[in-house]
Amino acid sequence: MISLFLKYSLYFVLYVLVQVLILNNILFLDFINPYLYIFFIITLPSTTTRDVTLLVGFLMGLIIDIFSGTPGFNAFATVLIAYIRPLFQKTFGPREEHDFLVPSIKTYGVGMFLQYAGYLVLIHHFTFFVIESASVAHIGSILLKTVCSSAFTILLIAGLEFFKFRR
Amino acid sequence: MKTLIRFLLKSKTLFLFLFLEIVSLILIVNHNQFQRSWFLNSSNAVVGEIYTFSNSVSEYFNLKTVNENLAKENAELRNLLHVQENELNFIKQDTNYQGRKDFAAEKNFTFITSKVINSSTNKYQNYITLDKGSADSIRPNMGVINALGVVGIVSSASEHFSVVLPILNPSSKISAKIKNGGNAGSLVWKGGDARIALLEEVPLYFPVTKGDTVVTSGNSTIFPEGINIGTVREFRKENYNFYFIEVELFTDFSQLSFVDVISYKNAREQKELEEKEGIHD
User: Fold this and answer.
1) A26 to chain B: which residues are within 8 Å by CB?
2) What is the per-residue pLDDT across B124-169, written as a single tens digit (0 to 9) for each?
3) Which one of 3.90.650.10, 2.60.120.560, 2.40.10.340, 3.30.700.20 gives the CATH number of domain B109-276?
4) Considering only CB atoms, which chain B residues are within 8 Å of A66?
5) Who's near A131: CB < 8 A, 6+ residues apart?
């Protein structure tokens, strides 16, 4: 249990650093900005209570915000997906009961996992870009940013997952 | 009351969710104020440290570019120093530089200063590109010099650019002579060292010594007489008639930046007259 806690704490720091030091500097064509750090929230094990997920999501989003100079933007979007996560787990997760389950390609199956992660990524990115543009008036550019950045994030997630799967 | 507490406990996750979202919203709405608040400022010390570290790492990846830029700047400055030094020398000696300009004025030579935008020294067929062309009255067959000496001859000119055939091109042939007199030979280059050219067809009866200055002969309409080319580095008798002379060039072709194109106003007139009389360079 403690080793699990340590492992996820390490992941937490790692994802935050990768996000703020590498991915935040990637700004292809002015509208692709992947947010891979939510992969941490997406793949928290099933034993994590909803409250803990919410708090972790808030903390993580806030740290990313502090680094990016976007106070509350990521926190809001991440808390949202942390809250609705169980809903999608019910829809796409395996039918049978498990005591301990980490959402991944191995446990969900490729198609189901990518759908599960994909929806959460889309919702997160859409929320984020709406907040960023501070109105829904620029819906065209918001959707473009959402789709392009989500595609990039999902690609990274799929890459990471397959890498883990192969090992 | 009991039911209310039970309800609150039952939906505490929802409340936590709403609470966190409201905190986020407050942060978002007060975006500008919060950026100046203690919370972000105090964390910024940590954030700044991490960014500083990240920058100190990423700096290493840029070192190559920075180095290249510095080297380029160095070369430019050195070139500038060369130019200044030489001009100073010329003025001090009060012979060549002033003389050249006076001579130029007298003979209707004008100088068009131009920037070298592309050049090579390491090929067999080297070329130089200048940033001025026919719009600035540069024409083919005009001479090109810089503060150190002869550079080459314009081979073609478009409206805003021109290509120079430098000494460092086997197709280039420049009429030159030993400074203290003697017959004109041709300065050619046959590949290899970018600092060494050959002076051919200098007749044996004229005494040559190492270190003699080689200048333009003035036998053509391209260069006025007496512009520096280089010094005699090595010489021997090639056959019964001519010397074989190696000339160490004054001009450093690897560091060309600004050059003067020589325009001789009466070039065409002189050429036409000579052609009419059947004289060829």
Assistant:
1) none
2) 777 888 888 888 888 888 889 887 788 999 988 888 888 888 988 8
3) 2.40.10.340
4) 40, 43-44, 47
5) A72, A73, A76, A77, B28
